[in-house]
Amino acid sequence: MCEVNDSVIRLGVIHGEFHWHRHINEDELFYVVDGQLLVDLEGRTIEVNCGKALLVPRGALHRT
Hints:
Elements: E1 2-4, E2 7-9, E3 28-31, E4 36-41, E5 44-49, E6 53-56, E7 62-63
Antiparallel strand pairs: 1-2, 3-6, 4-5, 4-7
């Protein structure tokens, strides 16, 4: 969508599982506009509901 200072803002529609990955140099923020998002981290799964956000810190192995 745009860049703000040193950050990139993206809008995504997520269906199904994504592969395990990590971001070495940047954090990743998920904000749920509609529905629910499940984010798998090492050893746990976090539910992110509509109107809520989750910050995955750089280096953390995760998948949606």
